[in-house]
Specification:
CATH class: Alpha Beta
Shape: globular
Helix content: 10-25%
Structural class: alpha/beta
Oligomer: single chain
Number of helices: 4
Number of domains: 1
CATH superfamily: 2,3-Dihydroxybiphenyl 1,2-Dioxygenase, domain 1
Strand content: 35-45%
Number of strands: 8
C-alpha cells in the first residue's frame, strides 16, 4: 500500500500525558476541557474530550506497567505539548479560560494547525505541560 493509499485511513486515537497528582489533574481537565474522567484503575485515567481521548499515567504507573506497553522513556509530568481546536469564538475562549483561572502564557499567535490557519492561545496544566487552544478561521 502506497503513501497516497493511507490518506484518510489514519487518525490519532489517543495519546498519553503524565500527572504528579491525579486528583488535581482530573479537576483541571474537567473544568478547562470538559473532560469526562474515567478511572479504570488506581494509577491510570482516561479523559474523554469531544472525539479525543487522553490517557493519564499517575505517579508510579510506568514502573508498574508491562514494559512493552509504555514508551522506552515514559512521558513524565510536565513533558507534554498538546493542541486542541476550540470550536467557539476567541471571545468565548478567553472568557472560559478566565472563569477557570487559567493564565494565558502566549497568545494570540497566528499559527497553522491541522485544519489550516488559526489563532492560538497557550497555557499550562498543573504539572507544566504546554497546552494550546487554536481557533480556526471560519470560511
Amino acid at each position: 500500500m502506497g503513501t497516497a493509499d493511507l490518506a484518510g485511513k489514519i487518525e490519532l486515537d489517543h495519546c498519553v500525558i503524565a500527572s504528579s497528582d491525579l486528583d488535581r489533574t482530573d479537576a483541571f481537565y474537567a473544568a478547562v476541557f470538559g473532560a469526562v474522567v474515567e478511572k479504570p484503575m488506581a494509577l491510570f485515567r482516561q479523559y474523554r474530550i469531544g472525539s479525543c481521548m487522553l490517557n493519564v499515567h499517575g505517579p508510579g504507573l510506568p514502573q508498574q506497567a508491562p514494559p512493552e506497553l509504555v514508551a522506552s522513556l515514559p512521558v513524565a509530568p510536565g513533558n507534554s505539548d498538546l493542541c486542541f481546536a476550540w470550536e467557539g469564538t476567541e471571545a468565548e475562549l478567553l472568557d472560559h479560560l478566565a472563569r477557570c483561572g487559567v493564565t494565558i502564557t502566549v497568545g494570540p499567535e497566528q499559527r497553522v494547525g491541522a485544519r489550516g490557519p488559526g489563532t492560538s492561545y497557550y497555557f499550562r496544566d498543573p504539572d507544566g505541560s504546554l497546552l494550546e487552544f487554536i481557533v480556526y478561521r471560519k470560511a
